[in-house]
Design brief:
Largest sheet: 10 strands, mixed
Order of helices and strands: EHEHEHEHEEHEHEHEHHE
Number of helices: 9
CATH topology of the largest domain: Rossmann fold
Strand content: 15-25%
CATH class of the largest domain: Alpha Beta
Shape: elongated
Number of strands: 10
Structural class: alpha/beta
């Protein structure tokens, strides 16, 4: 993981999402790109007024970004006055989502960070739009519920949906991510593994390497949520599967359902 895109939304509840973005950047020695947008100026023919408008908006955005950084420093680095991570700042005029998609088209981002607001209207429609558009671009997402107060990432959960078996490529990708976090790995899925399967051999070899891996069988969304609560899961990971045309139009995806209900940060992998 080399580059993380953090869209700036100027919302007080975005502070916790920035904590996660900064922590992940620190763990992976990655760069954060802070993408900020402001409303397009109505009369761009007036050059001087337009430039003054741009400067004022950039000034206000800088103040907000400074508040995010100060919030991080107050919690994790009170004796320092800087973040020990690489940050690039981008300021755009116009629609934030359009600039996010344009940035993902132009640059290779490993992760885009979104805040999941409790008060956002049309959560289901918003979730489906994000999953559809970023799924096509094969760009990984992490959504942070606004009240997810960062403490640690001790227990990471990877869960499959209820239709697809556990795959070796998914396990490998999860291990590549979690080995930087020094975390317990929990795996939930709905297919029992036979002892002569390749997946069983892979998990057995992981345990021999002293990696703490816990594998359990579940068969409903409510069981997954209960497991998260009972085992103090601090990050959930999903591998988004390809959807049929029927699923795209008529069926809410497993990932979409979890995204709407989750109370903990959710990392959605799009590029298996």
């Amino acid at each position: 993981m080399n580059r993380i895109l953090f869209p700036v939304e100027k919302d007080e509840n975005q502070k916790n999402a920035f904590i996660y973005a900064a922590k992940l950047a620190s763990f992976f020695n990655a760069e954060i790109v802070m993408l900020s947008c402001f409303t397009a100026f109505s009369n761009k023919e007036n050059y001087s007024e337009h430039q003054q408008y741009v400067r004022q908006n950039i000034f206000e955005l800088n103040e907000y970004i400074d508040s995010l950084k100060q919030y991080y420093l107050q919690r994790f680095s009170p004796i320092n006055d800087y973040l020990a991570i690489k940050i690039e700042y981008r300021y755009k005029e116009g629609n934030l989502m359009q600039h996010i998609f344009a940035a993902c088209e132009k640059d290779a981002f490993d992760l885009v960070v979104f805040t999941l607001y409790n008060h956002r209207a049309g959560d289901e429609r918003h979730a489906k739009s994000l999953l559809s558009k970023f799924g096509k671009k094969k760009t990984n997402l992490i959504v942070i519920p606004e009240d997810s107060y960062y403490l640690h990432l001790d227990n990471v959960l990877f869960t499959t949906d209820f239709e697809h078996p556990l795959s070796i490529s998914s396990i490998t990708q999860i291990l590549n991510i979690t080995r930087f976090l020094n975390t317990n790995i929990h795996i939930l899925h709905n297919h029992y593994l036979s002892k002569d399967s390749k997946e069983y051999d892979v998990l057995k070899s992981i345990k021999k390497q002293n990696n703490p891996v816990h594998v359990h069988h579940v068969k409903s969304l409510s069981e997954i949520m209960f497991y998260c609560h009972s085992n103090e899961i601090t990050l959930m990971i999903l591998q988004k599967s390809e959807e049929t045309l029927f699923e795209n139009f008529f069926k809410d995806s497993f990932t979409q359902k979890i995204m709407i209900q989750t109370k903990i940060p959710l990392l959605i992998l799009m590029n298996e």
